[in-house]
Amino acid sequence: MNTIKYTLSEDHLPKTWYNIQADLPTPLPPVLHPQTHQPITPADLEPLFPQALIEQEVSQQRYIDIPSPVYDIYRQWRPTPLYRARRLEKALDTPAKIYYKYEGVSPTGSHKPNTAIPQAYYNKIEGVKRLTTETGAGQWGCSLALAGMFFDLDVEVYMVKVSYHQKPYRRAMMESYGAKVIASPSETTAAGREILAQYPDSTGSLGIAIGEAIEIAAQDSKTKYALGSVLNHVLLHQTVIGLEAIEQLKMAEDEPDIIIGCTGGGSNFAGLVFPFLGASLRGESQKPIKFMAVEPAACPTLTRGKYAYDFGDTAHLTPLVKMHTLGNSFVPEGFHAGGLRYHGMAPLISHLVQLGLIECSAYPQLSCFAAGLTFASSEGILPAPEANHAVRKAIDEALLCKEEGISRTILFNLCGHGHFDMQAYIDYQAGKLQDSEYNPQEIAMALAGLPSFE
């Protein structure tokens, strides 16, 4: 049978998340206190996160149970489908077999609710009344707003200013779910006011928005901060993607040679890759798999960043984590893949790159939009600008198979649809978009400001 869609019933929805920390060949470098440079304690994180998430952040347990209230909400859209991209294969005339895991079927159109729902749940049971957060392209802000609505929590979102204006429909969705949305940098925080005093026309960055959200959370015992990527517990929650994909590929009687995901902070990439990579680390895979992370050339954290301790925000309110970073003061150009405009990369992914287990590449936005339209013309789904980076890489790997006359199985994560990004596609097809380039001097200056350990 030429099966196109592989679906799992609700009773095959994973009942646990997978924690790759249990299988790391060498442990993750510790998170450090910004003043003492000593490993942080759980008490240091309590002003920001509920106890359950702090425990997940440091846990070495391989599998962590999904709470029943979270599981019941997941069932609204999970398990998500795995597709065989037969039309795309034909259009490319490639011997490769291409599969994609489609996370755009969630209520907000992306993978982000996979962690927004449990984060809201754990905060709710601890008596929290309000959550603050940042968002770039808006997928995360929409997802936390949705989760706040489900669990009766107030949600305040600091949205990177360039995306606030580029993506009004994402902002409208957040507000429809009851969230308050503020363009960052803003006048509502000391961190925002300081940036605006120096750079009145600042378009913002995720690092700035994180600092504003953390500042608000730290001032109120009934308010906590929620992050949509980067941290260990966030990547943990996303592993339902890969756990489902393993079972779906068994249905297809296939195994991947290559697994691809776009990377900004790292959550969708980790969600698909970590369960497969964990099996490889445990010696359970039947064949070697290449794991490929794809990032925007205008914010090349993995391919041009330094592996060093840095702050997660521009205001220096976070602990220090060891990660690939362009420097916390780096502000990327306002290209349309707003979810990938972060100066750092998840410590877990950065660590695995250092161990040589993940390959990295970077693409300019015009090439990625072209790939998105190629994909849409064959598969009928218009990807989010972020997901286009994974599409681009998957197409290139499939064309390489054609050139070499070799059939490989390629799996990638289509982490969201582009239905709120139509202006970007309009601008692309009108020839108004350009390939944004990072300024090497700006990165050099930002890296020169990394924390000193002397």
Automatic annotation (TrEMBL):
Catalyzed reactions per annotation: (1S,2R)-1-C-(indol-3-yl)glycerol 3-phosphate + L-serine = D-glyceraldehyde 3-phosphate + L-tryptophan + H2O
Pfam families in alphabetical order: PALP (PF00291)
Gene3D superfamilies in UniProt: 3.40.50.1100
Enzyme class: lyase
The protein's required cofactors: pyridoxal 5'-phosphate
Modified residues (N6-(pyridoxal phosphate)lysine): K112
Highest taxon listed in the record's lineage: Bacteria
Domain annotation Tryptophan synthase beta chain-like PALP: ranges: 76-416
EC number: 4.2.1.20
Keywords from the named record: Amino-acid biosynthesis, Aromatic amino acid biosynthesis, Lyase, Pyridoxal phosphate, Tryptophan biosynthesis
GO terms under cellular component: cytoplasm
Cited SUPFAM superfamilies: Tryptophan synthase beta subunit-like PLP-dependent enzymes
Pathway participation: Amino-acid biosynthesis; L-tryptophan biosynthesis; L-tryptophan from chorismate: step 5/5
GO MF term set: L-serine hydro-lyase (adding indole, L-tryptophan-forming) activity; pyridoxal phosphate binding; tryptophan synthase activity
Cross-referenced HAMAP family: Trp_synth_beta
Family in the record: Belongs to the TrpB family.
Known partners and oligomeric status: Tetramer of two alpha and two beta chains.
Role: The beta subunit is responsible for the synthesis of L-tryptophan from indole and L-serine.
PANTHER family tied to this protein: TRYPTOPHAN SYNTHASE, TRYPTOPHAN SYNTHASE-RELATED
Name assigned to this protein: Tryptophan synthase beta chain
UniProt source species: Gloeothece verrucosa (strain PCC 7822) (Cyanothece sp. (strain PCC 7822))
